[in-house]
């Protein structure tokens, strides 16, 4: 069977205006990195998020933003970070690299994200930070989780890689924590030509460190230089944090990507609204098949970056469903986000144990539909009719 609807293989449908911005920047940019388009994207992003100017920083991808946030945590030996077991690996390993030990939190079976209760269960006297992941594009219970973290004096980080524009109580994902990150990877609702990211840092003193951390430790000399080339073009230094020097990186995002990001931001709400409308249409059309349980959210709390469901009848029917969809219909559903503690990498490092029954059960019976924003109406309807056919036969 030829694959007709797939997770990858095509690009987002950029508008002609967005393509023109890319071409214009290629032709006329004064520089291709760290110029006015970076500044414009960061300023517009901060406005969109309703956070202060100077608190948002473009990075070459979401991972780079996570790496910087991990550096700013300044972990001490045996510090722990609470991480949902059911997430993408990048939500965790940057913190591991900086010395934190992950402690796995379970997710809610219906929403597939952590709750204040599951986070609290994972806290110990050694917990220093909590990372909440708004997986699939749904914002976790941030008011409750934020007040828990404030009460306990914990650093709160939001992995909003998948949740741009999603909001709870009128507040955007990524504005509750001490830091947050976004991804503009190829599959995300806003993508800057395949790679891109953003870091938000609430504390202005920490935010002031980010430009040097992001760009090789480059900074200005603290003294006047009568000859601008002496002692050299620019200085390299890194501020001390908790009496230790931070190590620099080069995590910059190019100007073409930044120009495109700033332009796309103008229609991200429309993209999200369209994805949500499509998701609700799909979910409602399959309402007659209770075997497939979706998380239905009709407001802006979910941007439906992904469309995931649980086969309530268990893993066998899940496998039969995915196989039939692929072999008979050419629709390639996938299974995502193996709980991190079940990966060889984390097991080998001694983080193989988790008390996360919901995450385990969800993963073992989940189906993720190819729901990228490049799907045409015809493809969406074909996928829906295929799912109906296969479910009717298997039920
Ligand atoms: C939940 C989550 N966190 C982090 C990342 C990392 O983002 P990037 O791919 O931009 O490095 C992703 C990207 O897929 C993600 O889905």
What does this entry look like structurally?
The chain has 395 residues and is an alpha/beta fold. It folds into two domains: 251 residues, Aspartate Aminotransferase, domain 2; 127 residues, Aspartate Aminotransferase, domain 1. The protein contains 14 helices and 16 strands. It has a seven-stranded mixed sheet with strand order 1-9-8-5-4-2-3, sandwiched between helices. Strands 14-15-16 form a three-stranded antiparallel sheet. It has a two-stranded antiparallel sheet with strand order 6-7. It is globular. The chain starts with 15 loop residues before the first helix and ends with a helix. The relative contact order is 0.16. The mean pLDDT is 96. The site of pyridoxal-5'-phosphate (PLP) has 14 residues, from helix 3.
Average per-residue pLDDT, rounded, comes to: 96
Shape: globular
How would you describe the oligomerization state of the chains in this entry? Answer: single chain
Bound molecules: pyridoxal-5'-phosphate
Largest sheet: 7 strands, mixed
Q: Structural class given helices, strands, pairing?
A: alpha/beta
- Specify the helix fraction band: 25-40%
Total strands:
16
Radius of gyration: 22 Å
Percent of residues in beta strands?
15-25%
Which architecture of the largest domain would the CATH scheme give at its second level?
A: 3-Layer(aba) Sandwich
- Write down the CATH topology of the largest domain: Aspartate Aminotransferase, domain 2
State the CATH superfamily name of the largest domain: Type I PLP-dependent aspartate aminotransferase-like (Major domain)
